[in-house]
């Protein structure tokens, strides 16, 4: 696991360069499956499905990305985890999306006691009444290896975060955070339960011989660095 939280805020572009370097090795089979963990500086990123109407402030600086989904915000108080892993071929994209979403559901239900759900047709993790989203999921698979991943709002300041955009292109729902839902927890405290849930959920999907042991019992922090 590559955990950059102890370095403070990471420039999103720097994290993206790091991600792509790791991905090249994972795709080639020369590097082990890796979780990249960081807290970004304030950055707006536009995915492949961003529509012009999703950006309400035309003066915002936008970073175009190759992940799925629309525009979103990354910044202080948000935990970002990118699982960069080699998947068994032929790749089951639906199973991978469900595994990543499931890891967030497991963490928020079991570790935070939060009543969260999936919503058909809408990626990410939502509060049960479906009017606010707490975690966005944006993914890409190239050469059977994964990029991008999870952003989880922990103690995000919504007086500035997400302003000037329609988050994820969804205009009939809002966004929330663990702090707004009355849960006091730090980003650091969430890293282990979330990455443990990812290891468990992803184990059946990982390619053998790609740098990680595919057995659930052995897929631990020592095999996902």
From TrEMBL:
The active site is at residue 168. Residues 29-206 form the BPL/LPL catalytic domain. Signal peptide: none annotated. It is found in: Cytoplasm. The keyword Transcription does not apply. Its main location: cytoplasm. Substrate binds at residues 136-138, 149-151. Pfam families: LplA-B_cat (PF21948). The record marks 133 as: Lowers pKa of active site Cys. Keywords: Acyltransferase, Cytoplasm, Transferase. PROSITE patterns: BPL_LPL_CATALYTIC. One of its GO terms (molecular function) is lipoyl(octanoyl) transferase activity. It comes from the Bacteria. Its EC number is 2.3.1.181. Pathway: Protein modification; protein lipoylation via endogenous pathway; protein N(6)-(lipoyl)lysine from octanoyl-[acyl-carrier-protein]: step 1/2. It catalyses: octanoyl-[ACP] + L-lysyl-[protein] = N(6)-octanoyl-L-lysyl-[protein] + holo-[ACP] + H(+). Catalyzes the transfer of endogenously produced octanoic acid from octanoyl-acyl-carrier-protein onto the lipoyl domains of lipoate-dependent enzymes. Lipoyl-ACP can also act as a substrate although octanoyl-ACP is likely to be the physiological substrate. In the reaction, the free carboxyl group of octanoic acid is attached via an amide linkage to the epsilon-amino group of a specific lysine residue of lipoyl domains of lipoate-dependent enzymes. Belongs to the LipB family. This is Octanoyltransferase. It comes from Citricoccus muralis. The lineage of its organism: Bacteria, Bacillati, Actinomycetota, Actinomycetes, Micrococcales.
